[in-house]
Amino acid sequence: MLQTPRGTADLLPADQAYWSYVTAHFQSICEAFGYGEIRTPVFEDTRLFQRTVGEGTDIVEKEMYTFSDRGGDSLTLRPEGTAPVVRAYLEHGMHRLPQPVKLSYIASIFRYDRPQAGRLRQHHQFGVEALGEEAATIDAEIISLLLTLYRSVGLTGISLQLNNIGDAACRPQYIEDLTAYYRSHVHALCDNCQARLERNPLRLLDCKEDSCQPFIQEAPHTLDNLCADCDAHFSTLKRSLDAMEIEYTLNHTLVRGLDYYTRTVFEVWPEAVGRQSALGGGGRYDGLARHIGKRDVPGIGFGTGIERIILNLQRQGVAPDERQPFSVYIATLGERAGTYGIGLTNDLRQRGIRALLTYKQRSLKAQLRQAGNQAADCAVIVGDDELAQGQVLLRDLKSSTQENVAATDLVQALERLRAGEQDPQ
Known about the structure:
By secondary structure, the protein is an alpha+beta fold. It has two domains: 13-170 and 226-315, Bira Bifunctional Protein, Domain 2 (BirA Bifunctional Protein, domain 2, 2-Layer Sandwich), CATH 3.30.930; 327-419, Anticodon-binding domain (Rossmann fold), CATH 3.40.50.800. Helices cover 38% and strands 20% of the residues. The chain contains 15 helices and 16 strands. An eight-stranded mixed beta sheet has the order 1-5-6-11-10-9-7-8, with helices on both faces. A five-stranded mixed beta sheet has the order 13-12-14-15-16, sandwiched between helices. It has a three-stranded antiparallel beta sheet with strand order 2-4-3.
């Protein structure tokens, strides 16, 4: 028996209530904040991620799904959402539009990693990106959008972790101080961190190994090494968050796992879980566009895993609104009535009414049992004799009341029943 590949999952109809619930909230909030939807291909030129995510990152070195197509081109399934959006921004000349360009997306993400709760090898993300604006006030807007999403779906006990990792002016000195600190502990580091020390020291702060956590906590702080411009940017961000009454925790260990971040970085953690199960996060990436299209474009964004949101909703006992749409079951008795029922069902569906029917001749009792199993609100019962008289029987399955209705008046009667303006007598 063939099964889903490790690290993937089928999304069944029974799962859709949560997915529809969180997706509707995300789309509504993005609309309120002025973020338009963008969709990018599921795979990209491999060089896009090598240039932007970083050669020394776990994503590029260990987690990307990369393959050669029949033309010999190296392609990679999308391991993160930001670089493709920036590529699209540059490719389609969106720098000519009024800035900032504010974009949102729902995307499948692929990473070869150890599957864990809420993070599969194929998972899904909500994401937003704001391109063309360097002011810290839009950083605050992005953070507010993410927190608004979590709170609107009902999540509680979340905390905002915030840091500033500097820029090209001040980060080199910080990297030098960080490297000197870690060299004094090199023999106690995990194998991965010993390699990172030589290739990408900032990644040392992103290590998840327990043995390296004490060194991370005692490492030099990026906030103590900021240049005047980065410090001013961070001060504006904090004032903006304070004005929005958004609480935050300054976290000097937070650097995020991608090389393109600069200045603002942030994550949102669920209660009593911490960084390894972050709900989502993001940051500023002012140098990213230059690696793609040789154009300086400031930007900031976030990504948040949909599966992880749903997992935390379930942990907190938050259930989506599972009210079903008004539905009608068409029960028919006789060959002519059966043919009529097919046409009636299609007509109701064209009018936006959820209509159900049986696909073969069954007894009325069996059909009404099926109507109940499918949670229909009412049944339209049609027999050959009733059809000859231009009549149907409309039964309210909730109240068990019924009435005869002229076939020509059926749609109006159903609309009244759906709106609750009048019950069958």
